């Protein structure tokens, strides 16, 4: 039990310190784009050659939010590695309920579902993956706050999973 507490504390400290270790440069050009259209938000670009981050609004880039559609990438990777599907061309059911867009009202592969952001298909993938396997893999990926709660098919949409733009960039790196 003591070892678990120490490991949890180390993970928490590592997640708190990620922002201090980055080399950030504000971009006046990117800030102007946000200002010109009256948009509040952030933008993060990682330069792997120089190990630097360039963007707009470092404070916002460090703040965690629900990953929403950006979780489709780790959801796909986890589903594939767990054997919930064999390939991205396996067809998954959307569930039969009316959707906000008619194009989502059909069974489809992940290859098609990702292009139209078909949430029900990704929810089915998560259900096939299962809560325990999903949690283990979110932990392995050190994805955001790594909290998925007890509902396997919506934690990336309504919480408790949260991730910052910088953490997203680090995940993709």
Order of SSEs, N→C? HEHEEHHEEHHHHH
CATH topology tier name of the largest domain: Beta-lactamase
Give the helix/strand class: mainly alpha
Biggest sheet layout: 3 strands, mixed
Radius of gyration (CA) equals 18 Å
Strand content: 5-15%
The CATH superfamily of the largest domain is identified as DD-peptidase/beta-lactamase superfamily
What is the oligomer described by this structure? single chain
Shape: globular
- Could you name the ranges where pLDDT drops below 50 across 5 or more consecutive residues? 1-19
Considering DSSP H and I runs of 4 or more, what fraction of the residues is helical?
Answer: 40-55%
Mean pLDDT: 90
CATH 2nd-level architecture of the largest domain: 3-Layer(aba) Sandwich
- Order of strands across the widest beta sheet? 1-3-2
How far apart, in Å, are the first and last alpha carbons? Answer: 33 Å
Q: What is the helix tally?
A: 9
Give me the count of strands: 5
CATH class descriptor name of the largest domain: Alpha Beta
Number of domains: 2
Account of the protein in words:
Helix 4 packs parallel to helix 6. The chain is mainly alpha-helical. The chain contains 9 helices and 5 strands. It has a 3-stranded mixed sheet with strand order 1-3-2, with helices on both faces. A two-stranded antiparallel ribbon has the order 4-5. Strand 2 and strand 3 form a beta hairpin. 47% of the residues lie in helices and 10% in strands. It starts with a helix and ends with a helix. It has 2 domains: 61 residues, no CATH class; 105 residues, Beta-lactamase. The N terminus is likely disordered.
